[in-house]
Amino acid sequence: MKIRYLVLAVIIFSVISLFIGVTDISPLSLFNLSEEQQQVLLVSRIPRLISIVIAGASMSIVGLIMQQLSRNKFVSPTTAGTMDSARLGILVSMMVFTSAAPFQKMLVSFAFALAGTFIFMKILDKIKFKDAIFIPLVGLMFGNIISSVSMFFAYQNDLIQNMSSWMQGDFSMIMSGNYEMMYVSIPGLILAYIFANKFTIAGMGEDFSKNLGLNYRQVVNLGLSISALVTSSVVLTVGVIPFLGLIIPNIVTIYQGDHLKNTLAHTALLGAVFVLFCDIIGRIVIYPYEIPISLTVGVIGSGIFIYLLLRRKKYGL
Amino acid sequence: MGYKKKTIILGIVALALACLYIFYDLRGNIGYILPKRAIKLIAIIITGGAIAFSTTIFMTITNNRILTPSVLGLDSLYLLLQTVIIFIFGSNSIVMMESSINYLISIVLMVLFSLLLYQFLFKGEKNNIYFLLLIGMILGTFFNSFTDFMQVLIDPNEFMVAQDAMFASINNVHTDLVWLSVVLIGLVLIYFSRFYKYLDVLSLGKDQAVNLGVPYDYVVKRLLIVVAILISVATALTGPITFLGLLVVNVTYEMMKTFRHLYILLGSIFLSIIALVGGQFIVEKIFTFNTTLSVIINFVGGVYFIYLLLKENRSW
Amino acid sequence: MVDLKNVFKAYNNKPVIEDVSLTIDKGTITSFIGPNGAGKSTLISMISRLIAKDNGDITIDGKDIFQAKNNDLAKKISILKQSNAINLKLTVRELVSFGRFPYSQGKLTKEDWGKVDEAIEYMELQDMQDKFLEELSGGQRQRAHIAMVIAQDTEYILLDEPLNNLDMRASTQIMKTLRKLVDEMSKTILIVIHDINFASCYSDNIVALKDGKVMKQGRACDVIDKCVLKDLYDMDIDIKEIDNRRICVYY
Fold it and tell me: Where found, per UniProt (chain A) (predicted)?
């Protein structure tokens, strides 16, 4: 697949995304919009588009980095406890600071996500049996355990229904003023680009990278920090979007190979296209209501994931 | 101290706690309170026993101590089912009110689901059990997405009922269901007894088991069905307690330091009863926590497990 | 007698074993040699029914191994795989006692324990029989596993690279034991082995496998031959006769 087709797809879906919604805005009337239409476009539609693109691109890249670092194709924020830890972080910040500013929540959530991911990596070191399929299972278990800790606190504070509602990935509440946290991901992505080669080397293992004169620990820490940062910003603004970081990089590697430098742009673009697509579906299926993005991505994503697993089994990858 | 002695001690502690639970602060209408407590106690023993038992078998089949049957996705299916029932019929509907209907529907669906999953696994030649579990887990996430979605749509009052179903609770078990569960579990155990002798050999791994003449696929398939039924019964009776099994079986292995299943099975069942009865006692009588037992058990079990995983000088 | 007729096996449409026919005589050691990926382990796993064949017949004493009852087979043939990473707290004696499972289904009789003791004695493990496996050295652990196979008391014993990761002393000790098992207890042993000098010195027959096919089979002295080995490993191997033993020099 050529990169320009992906760019084209992003543009087409973006345009569609801008013009779907309860308030009727047609592309033709773009230059003579009413006051209200302008408002909708600026306050809701464009922020929504931006957050979809950022979320899709950055979650996919983060998945890719985590897979490189752990040398396992099935590790991602969903299967390494990162998402669940970020979620716990938000919950804790809400309990500790009753009226936490988004930035505070972000920081606490980032700290938790980072800690959770490090613990998972530590667990990986401890596990003797490094079967490709066993590792994500352990990661999912780990995520469940973190969730049960969240549940414990949520139950204590009567926050369960609350938690379900704000933890479910959903773009419909995105408006200018509450999505700007997403921009935090962008410097992370730029760093990912700069360090791409080093992540690939670090993925070959500690001894291998030391042999090449790479500061292994530092690179791994950087990679995990980027992952935690991006994940917590997405979880905070949009909510949990399952499987994204898992399936997009895997699809890209199928046709693009494993070298990060070659796959980063594809992964980012395909991630954006995928989320745009799922979002559009979620908005038109039960129009004028919406299906939240976590559900559409969850359904389509789990299907693709199972397909990838079966494919792997068939080709013995 | 040997593992035999430890098993006996665990049994005595479990019995003592059970007596304490029944006779503690026994006042008022004894004729009413006593049978009520006894039923609760039986429910606890069934749930705890079934979970410990099935987790032990499951860990033996999968040859590791990290995975529990909860990765089969049954808990998630149960929650989805409860939410769907409330969403479609409402909390006042006959399905919700008539607990035995709910109970039976839940069990049948969960067992059917596992059978479908197993069918899928054993179709191919190269059957990797981790593969099955990962698929189960993904489907679990999938069910959870749906559950989350519906829970947001449900009216907050109705949601309270859904929330009750989400967390295991022994306070509102129904007497009929307890007896029904006893019968079901008894039948499963009778069926299981034929396979008991294979457990020790299975823990040596697939190659060794085949070498020693175990009809591996045949036995594992049936043991997995036993696991699915036991977990379904326990879940439908009291609600999901995801990490109880993980907690008690790992503690048992740490304590017993043996591979003999007789002692591991007995020990984990006793420990499970101790954890549940003791926990229930603390929740009811001492702390009056604003939380249910399952939440605490999952919390403690989860944290302990992470500790176990990270403990120095140990690899899994 | 182990008989293979036109056996095929493929993974994902990639053939690993192609049209292998073999006869293995009773009371011999037969070594399977060949480069990596030749299909040695696959073949020996099929003979022991650990993995299924795609086509062909594998019979032991005239009985098809995939038709036979699991338990009967376990009294006839045993296999020791190269990876024996058992994650259990198990003493040597307990491990060896597992060898009696096919006979007693876990409830060991006095006679069974007698066999266990014999096996432990045979492998000279009396001193460490109550130690946990994880406390032993690689060579001792391998001996414990062989003791279990001896306790299983089968006519045919299959071993998949039993010398892996062992030092010279442990390796020789194990090969000597295997030789003794054949000479004294008239067992039949099939073994996958990488070190061709061990194969040359200790086995009666050798089967040379390459790319899933049998390149040459016959008496050890016929297979350990300059031309055969050159074809097999694609390298020049010098063969010296020392004390009536054929030693390959390939360094």
Answer: Cell membrane
Measure the CA–CA gap between B124 and C54, rounded to whole angstroms: 13
Nearest chain C residue to A129, by CA: C85
Residue A214 phi/psi, 5-degree rounding, is: -100, 140
State the CATH number of the domain containing residue A310. Answer: 1.10.3470.10
Q: Which of A117, A94, A68, A115 is nearest to A258 (CA)?
A: A68
Q: What is the pLDDT along chain B (316 residues), one digit of tens a residue?
A: 788 899 999 999 999 998 888 888 777 788 888 888 888 889 889 989 999 999 999 989 888 787 788 777 888 888 888 888 888 877 666 666 677 788 888 888 888 888 887 777 666 555 566 777 778 878 887 888 788 777 777 777 777 776 776 676 777 777 888 898 999 999 999 999 999 999 999 988 888 888 888 888 889 888 988 998 898 888 888 877 778 888 899 889 888 888 888 999 999 999 999 988 888 887 777 666 556 777 778 778 878 877 777 775 555 5
**Per-residue tokens: B180:** 């029904």
Parallel/antiparallel/unpaired status of strands C29-33 and C188-192: parallel
Residue A86's domain comprises 3-315
Instruction: Please answer whether residues A230 and A62 qualify as being in contact, where contact means their C-beta atoms are separated by less than 8 angstroms.
Output: yes
Q: What domains does chain C contain, in order, with CATH numbers?
A: 2-76+155-249 (3.40.50.300), 84-153 (no CATH)
Contacts of B291 in chain A (CB under 8 A): 152, 155-156
Total domains present in chain A? 1
Q: Does B128 touch chain C (CB under 8 A)?
A: no
The ipTM assigned to this model is 0.83
User: Contact, A209 vs A216, CB < 8 A?
Assistant: yes
Partner A contacted by B83 (CB < 8 A) = no
Contact assignment for A316 to C85 by CB distance below 8 Å: no
**What is the set of domains in chain B, with CATH numbers?**
3-308 (1.10.3470.10)
